[in-house]
Write a structure and sequence with these properties.
heterodimer, A: about 230 residues, alpha/beta, Rossmann fold, six-stranded mixed sheet, four-stranded antiparallel sheet, 7 helices, about 35% helix, globular, B: about 400 residues, alpha+beta, 2 domains, 12 helices, 12 strands, about 20% strand
């Protein structure tokens, strides 16, 4: 039996919009194995980004259980979730979200600022992460001096520098051309296959989803329509 | 502890924001500058008045004036009363055995100053007795005082500057010609706003021969003020007189004006501050909006919301302190010591703006309060909602 890193049971997420309550997720069950590369696809409004936020600890559910590597994150406080994210989750965003005033090296170091790692070890680990994504020679460049694909690869380096339990990718190729998108997806696939990183990726792009080891399609209120 | 650590880490990152986007906080800095400068200048007025009062008066000297009078100009003592005062045992004696007591005629007149403006000038009649009271070892050294019967006068340093006169200058006073004999340097006290005139000549000019307004009394070394006051109160022929320590007299003279000026300063600054808070809030709203994505990224990476709020607030507060400090330094250089005048009609007070440590302290506190009041809402909005909304560009 596969070792499940992520275990979700009866997950519900509702939002209040004025007098109405909108159910985005209506009781989702999901298991993600350790070392798995899972793609989540679905139309707008299916709740895939909401599900990703909840798994990544960026939002809190209305009810249900989320267990990640044996920890019930649905029971954590806001500050507890922040601390948990810093140690266990790496994020890759659609718009890269690098800090514009820092060069690539220092951008990758940012998550390590929250640990008790020394400055020299921080620099070393960030250098290793940049080398892994093939951008060691661009470490002194600011985001404005990098292409979209390079920025996203720096973002991936930032996401993996703390050796997180889980990589959360929200439309990582949504803002890239085909060539850059392919580079990024190949990188994610390599991280998964060679370094056993567990990756959950939301995407609209079937080509991007084909790089994953499993694809889940979400329908209305997060209902799993089919698995591939 | 962790929130503090995150605050410090974020503060270092925020410094990088300024280095890459220095114009962001320019408007906010401008609001701090206007607020702190306004309050500093307004508070420098009562501070200047109090500094003036603090430099005026000699410990151990008592002012005796009529109980109904609020100023020396309005007061009148009879010669008998002056004689009785001198007979009290609490009054110090000179080597000649005479009481060290200076009865003075004090009047006010309006004169045209060097800029063509009419201003009130206080005139003090001087006698050898005043010279003895002020002689070295007793108090300020007045230098040479006008000779009895002469039409000479001593001009206080401030009065001389204001009226545009110097030693040897002729001066018209009450239709008579006088000559400035010397300039009185009285350590920046209120006396420097006065003209000291030979007493009998002054009384004649005001058609008040023999009239005495006040008496300055030097207490004996072993006498307490309370003892002297009790002795005056116990003498029925000294009924209707008020005794007050000279230092306290001058503090009271400017106290009302200083209190009024201070109340006006705070009223204006509170009104201005309300507007400044709104301006700062709006400007910071734009600034915080511009860094919303970066802050959301940092929150997503694990920086605590409290750390984000504290770091951004700390940034605004530090900025307010730096701006206020800069303004205070500039004002200390440019405004401190500049003269101003205020008048009750009877008495004119000529003081100078004083940027004192107390003024600086209040300005700092006020500016920090502006920073917190204006900054709290935009900063708290930074952490409202899930960071994913900002990260997706919603």
């Amino acid at each position: 039996m596969q070792d499940d890193l992520v275990r979700i049971r009866g997950l519900v997420k509702s939002y209040k919009r004025g007098p109405e309550t909108v159910d985005v997720l209506g009781g989702v069950d999901l298991d993600v194995g350790r070392g798995e590369f899972l793609a989540l696809m679905g139309p707008s409004g299916s709740g895939k980004s909401t599900l990703l936020n909840l798994i990544g600890g960026l939002d809190r559910s209305s009810s249900g259980e989320i267990t990640i590597d044996g920890q019930r994150i649905d029971q954590m406080s806001k500050s507890g979730l922040a601390d948990w994210r810093s140690r266990h989750v790496g994020f890759v965003f659609q718009l890269y979200n690098l800090l514009p005033m820092l060069d690539a090296q220092r951008n990758v170091e940012v998550p390590l600022l929250l640990s008790s790692v020394s400055a020299s070890l921080r620099r070393r680990n960030a250098g290793i992460a940049l080398e892994l994504v093939g951008l060691k020679d661009r470490s002194g460049h600011r985001p404005s001096e990098l292409s979209g694909g390079q920025q996203q690869r720096v973002a991936i380096a930032r996401a993996i520098v703390t050796d997180p339990t889980l990589l959360i990718c929200d439309e990582p190729t949504g803002d890239l051309d085909r060539a850059a998108a392919t580079q990024v997806l190949e990188l994610l696939q390599a991280l998964n296959r060679e370094h056993c990183n567990t990756i959950i990726m939301v995407t609209h792009d079937p080509v991007a989803a084909s790089y994953a080891s499993r694809t889940l399609h979400l329908g209305e209120k997060g209902r799993m329509v089919e698995a591939a | 502890m962790r929130a503090i650590r995150h605050t410090l880490l974020l503060s270092r990152l925020l410094l990088g924001f300024h280095l890459s986007r220095p114009r962001d906080l320019l408007l906010v800095g401008l609001a701090f500058m206007v607020g702190s400068t306004t309050l500093a200048v307004l508070l420098a007025i009562p501070a200047g008045l109090e500094r003036l009062a603090g430099r005026t008066g000699i410990p151990g000297v008592v002012v005796v004036l009529s109980a109904a009078a609020s100023t020396e100009v309005e007061s009148e003592l009879s010669p008998i009363q002056v004689g009785l005062l001198g007979s009290l045992p609490q009054v110090a004696r000179g080597i000649d055995g005479r009481p060290i007591l200076a009865p003075q005629f004090v009047a006010a007149t309006r004169m045209v100053d060097g800029a063509g403006r009419v201003s009130t000038v206080q005139l003090r009649g001087v006698t050898p007795a005043l010279g003895a009271l002020l002689a070295p070892g007793h108090g300020n050294d007045p230098g040479s005082l006008p000779e009895p019967g002469s039409q000479a006068l001593v001009a206080g340093r401030e009065a001389a500057q204001r009226l545009g006169i110097e030693p040897g200058s002729p001066i018209k006073l009450r239709g008579r010609d006088w000559q400035v004999d010397s300039i009185l340097d009285a350590d920046g006290s209120l006396w420097e706003s006065e003209l000291w005139v030979e007493q009998s000549a002054l009384q004649a000019a005001f058609r008040a021969p023999g009239r005495i307004s006040v008496a300055w009394v030097w207490l004996a070394a072993d006498a307490e003020f309370d003892q002297f006051a009790a002795a005056v109160a116990a003498e029925p022929r000294l009924d209707g007189l008020r005794v007050i320590e000279q230092t306290r007299y001058y503090q009271a003279q400017v106290g009302f004006l200083a209190g009024l000026a201070r109340a006006a300063a705070w009223s204006v600054s509170l009104l201005l501050g309300a507007g400044a808070v709104i301006a700062i809030g709006n400007a910071l709203g734009v600034v915080m909006s511009a860094r919303r994505v970066e802050m959301a990224t940092l929150r997503a990476l694990g920086f605590r919301d409290a750390g984000v709020v504290l770091a951004n607030l700390l940034e605004v507060v530090v900025m307010s302190i730096l701006v206020a400090a800069g303004c205070l330094l500039v004002l200390k250089w440019t405004v401190d010591g500049l003269g101003f005048a205020t008048s009750t009609g009877i008495q004119a007070v000529y003081a100078a703006f004083a940027i004192t440590p107390s003024v600086a302290g209040w300005v700092m506190l006020y500016t920090i309060a502006l920073a917190l009041a204006g900054g709290i809402m935009p900063v708290v909005r930074l952490v409202s909602g899930s960071p994913m909304n900002a990260l997706r560009g919603d």
